[in-house]
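Is this the right way to post structure tokens for a design question? Let me know if I should format differently. Anyway, here goes:
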């Protein structure tokens, strides 16, 4: 490994006396938001040893969101705050600890087979690479001071919009780039403003007033009266029914305590259990507890597909690979088909071929040998297709990743050569397992030879589709 690839750390500090003279030091800026000293970018990582928390946080956040430095290891010597610390790579006691932690990260950055700067403008790649070079997961960070309680600090910073981080993570989960890991917590939030700690208040079930009080109630067996205990209590301390004047001596025989034991001072209704509602201290809206927004906070980790994206700098999805064929849209394809069709009818030498190929087992291959192998197979397939195409040939993508071909001036024999070459390595199944092979189904028509007098381009397309769908 060359010198340029060696790990070098810079200490940005306003306490240089704390550091050994052999360590690269740079005076920390004294104001928030000032320009970076460009020499920072010559180092593989930075240790921030700065007294002021504001200054330190400002530098940390700006370095972490800087295109040239977002992947690099950044350490603190003291904590800033729980969410801010999560943006750094840890709190280190000395430079040796920082070097030990920086080493594996830098090694991974240097082992990328491409220039990460070419993909880092993409927020998605920032996050994928950040996780990949660290071999880490995304974990929600708890901060009771923040309205949402949980946040994903470095993701928010890297993608640049903190408001929709959860939606963004969900979208990457849908794209199969991030996979949900451990469920860390479940919170209920105000559906109006997102505040995670609404105040649960017990209120009157009838009028929702908070002016409720718990009363002991008695139920007279003689006349059935149900009233607060204080109404039964005489001055001498005995219990006498206010309605029928019966002496209530024994609980269970003369009287009992019914369940209704709350009274509302505003509407005077009584009830056994008050209603619990969630009152938001921020937006002041009151919500039924079942209408609160339930949020599950989980960790996220890279999927195999995301790891490949990080390693190669490309997000490869079957359709993205097929797109590299410079396909025309299907409307244009049909338009040219129509044109060739009428030419073939008019002139004798206007023979041409239309055909479509469907790979029927993308999902099975992915299930059996993984997305990486599937993409390799598709890549080989696309390469073979490309090598067979002349500049005058057209391709278009149909449903189910079908590739449609339009080959002008191509007869049955010539078309068979093209098709055989495209299918070449998939038919050579001698050593490979079947589930590791693309199953390609081809339907071809050479016009006018193989078409009926009454055929139209529309009819031929419909016929090809029907054949492709045949089981
Ligand atoms: Zn009574
Ligand atoms: Zn009430
Ligand atoms: Zn609210």
């Amino acid at each position: 490994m060359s010198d340029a690839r060696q790990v070098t750390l810079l200490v940005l500090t306003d306490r240089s006396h704390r550091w050994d003279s052999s360590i690269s030091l740079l005076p920390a800026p004294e104001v928030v938001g000032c320009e970076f000293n460009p020499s920072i970018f010559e180092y593989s990582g930075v240790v921030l040893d700065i007294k002021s928390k504001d200054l330190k946080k400002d530098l940390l956040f700006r370095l972490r969101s800087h295109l040239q430095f977002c992947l690099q290891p950044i350490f603190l010597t003291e904590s800033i705050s729980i969410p801010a610390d999560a943006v750094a790579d840890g709190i280190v006691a000395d430079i040796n600890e920082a070097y030990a932690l920086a080493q594996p990260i830098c090694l991974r950055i240097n082992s990328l087979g491409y220039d990460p700067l070419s993909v880092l403008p993409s927020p998605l790649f920032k996050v994928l690479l950040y996780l990949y070079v660290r071999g880490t997961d995304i974990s929600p960070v708890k901060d009771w001071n923040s309205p949402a309680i949980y946040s994903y600090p470095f993701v928010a910073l890297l993608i640049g919009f903190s408001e929709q981080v959860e939606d963004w993570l969900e979208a990457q989960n849908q794209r199969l780039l991030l996979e949900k890991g451990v469920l860390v917590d479940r919170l209920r939030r105000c559906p109006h403003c997102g505040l995670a700690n609404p105040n649960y208040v017990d209120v009157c079930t009838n009028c929702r007033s908070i002016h409720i009080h718990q009363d002991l109630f008695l139920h007279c067996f003689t006349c059935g009266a149900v009233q607060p205990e204080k109404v039964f209590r005489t001055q001498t301390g005995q219990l006498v029914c206010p309605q029928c004047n019966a002496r209530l001596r024994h609980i269970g025989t003369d009287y009992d305590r019914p369940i209704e034991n709350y009274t509302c001072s505003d509407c005077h209704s009584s009830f056994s259990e008050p209603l619990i509602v969630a009152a938001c201290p921020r937006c002041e809206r009151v919500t039924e507890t079942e209408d609160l927004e339930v949020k599950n906070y989980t960790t996220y980790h890279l999927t195999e597909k995301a790891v490949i994206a990080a390693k190669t700098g490309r997000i490869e999805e079957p359709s993205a690979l097929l797109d590299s064929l410079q396909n025309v849209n299907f409307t244009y394809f049909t338009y040219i088909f129509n044109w060739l069709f009428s030419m073939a009818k008019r002139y004798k030498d206007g023979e041409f071929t239309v055909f479509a190929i469907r790979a029927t087992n993308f999902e099975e291959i992915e299930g059996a040998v993984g997305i990486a192998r599937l993409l390799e197979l598709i890549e080989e397939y696309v390469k073979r297709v490309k090598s067979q195409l002349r500049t005058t040939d057209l391709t278009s993508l149909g449903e189910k990743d079908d590739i449609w071909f339009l080959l002008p001036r191509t007869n049955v024999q010539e078309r068979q050569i093209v098709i055989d070459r495209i299918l070449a390595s998939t038919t050579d199944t001698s050593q490979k397992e079947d589930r590791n092979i693309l199953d390609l189904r081809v339907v071809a028509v050479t016009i006018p030879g193989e078409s009926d007098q009454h055929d139209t381009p529309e009819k031929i397309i419909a016929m090809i589709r029907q054949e492709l769908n045949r089981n």
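Format looks fine. Someone answered above. Worth noting: The longest strand covers residues 178-189. The two ends are 56 Å apart (CA to CA).
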